[in-house]
Design goal:
Strand 6 and strand 7 form a beta hairpin. The chain folds into two domains: about 240 residues, Aspartate Aminotransferase, domain 2; about 130 residues, Aspartate Aminotransferase, domain 1. By secondary structure, the chain is of the alpha/beta class. It contains 13 helices and 14 strands. The protein has a seven-stranded mixed beta sheet, sandwiched between helices. Strands 12-13-14 form a three-stranded antiparallel beta sheet, with helices on one face. The two termini are about 30 Å apart.
């Protein structure tokens, strides 16, 4: 059996090594490391795939979120509604700009923003809602966009964990996550479903005016070279990464299908075991399983804890991860924003019980059987 990893980027690379090596070598031979047709082609191909008019590549997913917020002409103290049960970058991007994070509860089944909680959190100072498509499953975007329209606030999708995910509206229309809100953001961190060989990110929009601001902000606020109209930043996706991503984009649906197949295998094995709750799959979203995250609920009478399973698996050389052990509202960095004043019992409850098992495009049945048997052995042990 091959050694277990949370994400097997090397085996994925070896399967398309010739294509990737040729693409990188072409960039090296051209010596065009910033910008150029390779970057433009990737941006256009990604826009076509996502179903948006524009893609603005940038240096990483955190920059994508920050640039998106900067483009909306917000002022310090303006409120940004965000989940606390997410990676820190979602909220950090707002805090950097001295915006006020307003943490809301997540749905206990989907782990994504609870639309009812959003509605209750709206105030006259609310300017933006930032739903996170956590672990590869979409938030309830139809309801979120209805709330946005009702209260005239922007929505920025954090699509870093769900690129390629399909969202189905109640009228049967199917679109990609990242294309639904006013702005979508993603990350190309190597472990992502569409991962680069380093850092990278992108911003999506259909808005003709917004795209010009997004491009300017990402390039030092320039309207043209050496003419700076707004305060911006320096956030570029380099050409080598664009070349790699353009090749891997062709395989994204195949990669996501492999993740879903692996998740189905896990589901079948764990479905009937007391104490394990398998990932919920919402009817409106085809979960693309950036993470396969189970709940260990000791309230079911097993007496088995998430932390206990984490330690047990480590002793068997089975990797696992806890995303996220400390929710954002309880992080020290948000003390000055009143983080601890938010009462989020579902978020706290999940943070004590979730654990993610290995899932990636190269996971095979032998590896999964080994993982599954060790999880079940722990659950069944005295």
């Amino acid at each position: 059996m091959r050694s277990l990893q949370m994400v097997d980027t090397k085996t994925q690379y070896l399967k398309i090594k010739n294509e990737l090596d040729a693409a990188v070598l072409a960039v090296l031979e051209s010596s065009r490391f910033i910008g150029g047709t390779v970057l433009d082609d990737f941006a256009q191909n990604l826009a076509t795939y996502i179903g948006v008019k524009y893609v603005v590549p940038c240096a990483n997913g955190t920059d994508a979120l920050q640039i998106a917020l900067m483009a909306l002409d917000l002022k310090p103290g303006d409120e940004v509604i965000t989940p606390s049960f997410t990676y820190i970058a979602t909220v950090e991007a707002a805090a950097i700009l001295q915006l006020q994070p307003v943490f809301v509860e997540v749905d206990a089944k989907t782990f994504c923003m609870d639309a009812d909680a959003i509605e209750k959190a709206i105030t006259p100072k609310t300017k933006v809602i930032v739903p996170v498509h956590l672990y590869g499953q979409a938030a309830d975007m139809e309801r979120i966009m209805a709330i946005s329209k009702k209260h005239n606030v922007y929505v920025i999708e954090d699509n870093a964990q769900a690129i390629g995910c399909d969202y189905t509206f109640s009228d049967g229309r199917v679109v990609k996550t990242g294309s639904i809100a006013h702005i979508g953001c993603t990350s190309f961190y190597p472990s992502k479903n569409l991962g680069a060989f380093g850092d990278g990110g992108a911003i999506f929009t259909n808005d003709d005016a917004l795209v010009e601001k997004l491009k300017m902000i990402a390039a030092h606020g320039q309207s043209k070279k050496y003419y700076h109209d707004v305060v911006g930043c320096n956030s570029r996706l380099d050409t080598v990464q664009a070349a790699v991503l353009d090749i891997k984009l062709k395989y994204l649906d195949e990669y996501n299908a492999a993740r879903i197949k692996a998740a189905d295998y896990y589901d079948q094995a764990f479905r009937d075991h007391a104490g394990i709750s398998i990932p919920y799959r919402a009817a409106y979203s085809n979960h693309v399983f950036h993470q396969y995250t189970i709940l260990l609920n000791d309230a079911k009478g097993t007496g088995k804890s998430r932390d206990g399973l984490n330690q047990y698996l480590a002793g068997k050389d089975v990797p696992s991860m806890i995303y996220y052990p400390v929710p954002c509202h309880r992080q020290k960095m948000f003390d000055s924003f009143g983080g601890n004043s938010f009462n989020l019992p579902v978020t706290d409850w999940l943070s004590e019980r979730v654990i993610s098992l290995p899932i990636h495009t190269e996971l095979d049945a032998e590896q999964q059987d080994f993982i599954i048997s060790n999880v079940i052995d722990y659950i069944n042990s005295n």
